[in-house]
């Protein structure tokens, strides 16, 4: 309290010559000690708060207090503010020090204060970054009417944004390293070849390190989606592993429309293949996920380039984390009257649809130009065959479908999933024109 009074008195009688802000800050040793202790205890404090919020009465009390406060911040955000301010103190002191004359009476004191602030920030940098990210996650959540479960791993939330009752079912009899009866041949960086059943692929994928990554906030902003002649105004929120697609309810609140894993997304420049309207390439690019493509258009060239750069970077990072590195696809032959009914094609996580078409033709012994053929996909019992353009990733389509299928069946039913519920890829001769894809509302 004395520290605050001294600062108030100095500011009230401010004179640039004799004023000694640095002397006051450097002399309060307990200030730095308390701040450091608070920073060290922050994670434990937030974990305890989460436990207390399981009490519905306490949670209701917090909601009422937040709604009635001027700041509108949650208790979690308020508790994190002191730690978030530590880097601010450092920046302000450094700016004051950089602009101060060397013969100023406060120069040496301010130098000591800057040194102490730098030490505190360096020691607590990890906590500061973590808490700043937690605040951003909380701020995003507060603008959505439904729970986004942003602090839960990807596998704990289904494709519709609902919290799962349980995580992925455990493997019975055997480990992910290939020991035990019926286990896939899989190690980190391995390939699933000898067992391509849905259960085998899912069990191998379950060991992927992507499940343990920490989610961080990256960017958000408005966008327009165009598919065919249809236009939709949307709002994107990008995290290190996840993209939220939302629709505006008011100026500051949103309703979640779609939730996509970055590891299963793709970017392309084939705007004319997706949109029937004329769109500027300098403002747009194709954004896709299993099994849709849409043209994303931004307000400026700079905004477009920023989104494209960040999405490319984080999609690539997340895709590199996914295991197994490749899976086997059963590609049905509808390209002609001759040849086998289907072929098995081993597909890498980075293989595009067009590359898979080339591999399938080679396996079938067809020497025609691969550009004359097209891969189609059926991803459910009630869905018709869906044409892929060429830039998509069949690996991502298959794993996305298997995971969604897994969400709807019990563990002991995995081996008995019918072909109607399995993801089917079909090779056909390309037509001169093809129907553009419609995005989900």
Could you characterize what this model shows?
It is a single chain. With 441 residues, the protein is α+β, with helices and mostly antiparallel strands. Helices cover 40% and strands 18% of the residues. The chain has a 7-stranded antiparallel beta sheet. A 5-stranded mixed beta sheet has the order 9-8-12-10-11. The longest helix has 24 residues, at 29-52. The model is unreliable at 167-198, 201-212 and 434-441 (pLDDT under 50).
Secondary-structure topology with pairs:
Elements: H1 2-12, H2 21-27, H3 29-52, H4 56-68, H5 75-98, H6 107-123, H7 125-142, H8 198-206, E1 217-227, E2 230-239, E3 242-248, E4 254-261, E5 266-268, H9 271-274, E6 284-289, E7 292-297, H10 301-321, E8 326-334, E9 342-348, H11 353-364, E10 373-378, E11 386-387, H12 394-408, E12 424-429
Parallel strand pairs: 8-12
Antiparallel strand pairs: 1-2, 1-7, 2-3, 3-4, 5-6, 6-7, 8-9, 10-11, 10-12
Helix pairs in contact: 2-6, 3-5, 5-6, 5-7, 8-12
């Amino acid at each position: 309290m004395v520290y605050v009074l001294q600062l108030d008195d100095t500011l009230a009688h401010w004179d640039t010559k004799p004023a000694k802000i640095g002397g006051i800050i450097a002399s309060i040793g307990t200030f730095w000690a308390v701040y450091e202790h608070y920073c060290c205890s922050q994670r434990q404090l937030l974990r305890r708060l989460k436990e207390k919020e399981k009490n519905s009465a306490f949670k209701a009390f917090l909601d009422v207090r937040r709604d009635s406060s001027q700041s509108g911040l949650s208790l979690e955000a308020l508790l994190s503010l002191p730690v978030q301010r530590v880097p601010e103190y450092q920046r302000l002191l450094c700016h004051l020090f950089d602009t101060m004359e060397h013969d100023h009476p406060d120069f040496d004191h301010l130098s000591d204060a800057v040194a102490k602030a730098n030490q505190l920030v360096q020691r607590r940098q990890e906590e500061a970054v973590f808490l700043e990210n937690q605040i951003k996650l909380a701020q995003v959540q507060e603008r959505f009417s439904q729970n986004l479960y942003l602090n839960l791993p990807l596998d704990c939330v289904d494709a519709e944004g609902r919290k799962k009752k349980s995580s992925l079912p455990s493997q019975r009899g055997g480990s992910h390293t290939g020991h035990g009866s019926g286990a896939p041949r899989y190690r980190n960086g391995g390939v699933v070849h000898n067992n391509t059943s849905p259960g085998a692929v899912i069990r191998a994928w379950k060991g992927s390190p992507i499940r343990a990554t920490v989610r961080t906030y990256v960017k958000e902003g408005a966008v327009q989606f165009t598919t065919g002649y249809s236009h939709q105004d949307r709002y994107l929120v990008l995290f290190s592993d996840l993209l939220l697609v939302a629709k505006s309810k008011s100026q500051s609140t949103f309703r979640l429309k779609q939730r996509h894993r970055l590891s299963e997304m793709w970017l392309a420049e084939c705007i004319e293949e997706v949109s029937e309207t004329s769109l500027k390439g300098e403002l747009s690019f194709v954004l896709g996920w299993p099994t849709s493509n849409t043209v994303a258009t931004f307000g400026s060239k700079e905004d477009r380039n920023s989104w494209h750069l960040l999405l490319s970077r984080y999609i690539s990072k997340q895709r590199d984390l996914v295991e197994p590195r490749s899976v086997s696809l059963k590609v049905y032959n509808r390209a002609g009257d001759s040849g086998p009914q289907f072929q098995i094609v081993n597909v890498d996580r980075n293989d595009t649809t067009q590359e898979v078409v080339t591999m399938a033709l080679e396996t079938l012994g067809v020497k025609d130009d691969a550009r004359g053929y097209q891969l189609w996909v059926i991803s459910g019992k009630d869905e018709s065959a869906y044409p892929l353009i060429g830039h998509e990733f069949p690996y991502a389509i298959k794993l996305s479908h298997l995971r969604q299928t897994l969400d709807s069946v019990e563990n002991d039913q995995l081996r008995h999933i019918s072909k109607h519920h399995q993801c089917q890829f079909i090779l056909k001769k390309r037509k001169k024109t093809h129907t553009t894809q419609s995005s989900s509302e």
